[in-house]
Specification:
Blueprint: H1 2-37, H2 42-50, H3 53-70
Helix pairs in contact: 1-2, 1-3
């Protein structure tokens, strides 16, 4: 039973982390091009790169809830 709980929590966290990395790589590449053309857009690009990080944070929260609530 404990192995299934740990595996479910790992999937919840890994899914969010992989999705965050994929999204930030796409946004980062586009953001670098945007900053090269318009340097004043750097603030917006930084915010847009930070937004997908919530997926990793929420994945961690869900994994924590799985581990805590099932025990």
């Amino acid at each position: 039973m404990a192995l299934e709980i740990a595996f479910g929590a790992a999937i919840a966290f890994a899914g969010g982390a992989i999705a965050t990395g994929w999204a930030q790589s796409r946004i980062g590449a586009a953001g670098a091009a945007a900053i090269a053309e318009r340097p004043e857009s750097a603030g917006s690009v930084i915010v847009l790169v930070a937004i997908p990080e919530t997926m990793a944070i929420l994945g961690f929260v869900v994994a924590s809830m799985i581990v805590i609530m099932v025990k």
